[in-house]
Amino acid sequence: MQLIDTATTRRHLAFGPLIAALRTMFVAGCELPARGVHRIDGADGGGTLLLMPAWRAGLRLGIKSVTIFPGNAARGLPGLHSTYLLFDATTGVPLAQLDGNEITSRRTAAAAALAASFLARVDAHRLLVVGTGRVAALLTEAMRAVRAIDEVLVWNHRPASALALAAELRAAGFAARATDDLAASVASADIVSCATLATAALIRGEWLQPGTHLDLIGSFTPQMREADAECFARGRVFVDTEEALAKSGDVLGAIAAGTFGAERLQGTLAELCRGTRAGRGDATERTLFKAVGSALEDLAAAELVFDARQRESLCSVASKPDDPAP
Fold this sequence. Notes:
The chain has helices at about 5-10, 15-30, 100-120, 135-145, 160-170, 180-190, 230-235, 245, 250-255, 270-275, 295-320, and strands at about 1-5, 35-40, 45-55, 60-70, 80-90, 95-100, 125-130, 150-155, 175-180, 190-195, 215, 235-240, 265-270, 285-290. Helix 2 (about 15-30) crosses helix 3 (about 100-120), helix 2 crosses helix 11 (about 295-320) and helix 3 packs across helix 4 (about 135-145). It is of the alpha/beta class. It is built from 11 helices and 14 strands. The protein has 2 domains: about 1-105 and about 295-320, ornithine cyclodeaminase, domain 1 (2-Layer Sandwich); about 120-295, NAD(P)-binding Rossmann-like Domain (Rossmann fold), CATH 3.40.50.720. The two termini are about 35 Å apart. About 35% of the residues lie in helices and about 20% in strands. It is globular.
């Protein structure tokens, strides 16, 4: 079994190829059992173990394990760790272990960009990033893979963090600046992309202008909210998978408020990729994409890395000079 480190995983997950791999996997589909959630008791609050399997019969099988231990903050340790195991789905032979954190963050940003390729206006160029964490920091690069992003605004509830991320983006060649006026920034943006752990709505529907695409990728539990119920009333709503209808606090809040129901769902990311549901219809409508993450995306990313690493190994062997004669 290969051990593929963080740097190698990242190197083989450039957003162009990764977005293409996700689209291919959404079209093809795979087996997606319900994720396993296990509580780990402990004196300091314990933690949670998530197991997310996915496979394609006769091809590859993958399992992502995620440990979430909030008490680690007091120990000076990250609260979340993730690993990914890839197997041969015919024999069960382990193929590789990869950095699960890198896979998760990059496939999450890539899935948002894939959705934007169907839902954002073709002339969208101004991006507002709400949040400054691992995924938020990747959104500009991911969105530029599908739209000609030339202006980036960054907002965070901690202004210093927004300033820091904006500086990082400028150093990477993006025209970026921090903003402290969220309402005005939402109103001026073509794409609003939220990647936070907020439990109270940050984005208000009244701020969304005609033609805006709202991307909500931070809320993945019923307790989390990034947008108010009015956002769902004002836009055509799409999700990555139908699990979002039961898991996302954003969606559940809108359902409870009566501004959204399952019958108003416009489609899933798989349906957009397969062409069975239409994306944006015109330049004035508002669109909303809600994602909670899928093991399908993890499998697509892991296979992309593994196959690229295999090609590298073959090229390395082929390029070695013949052994000298004895």
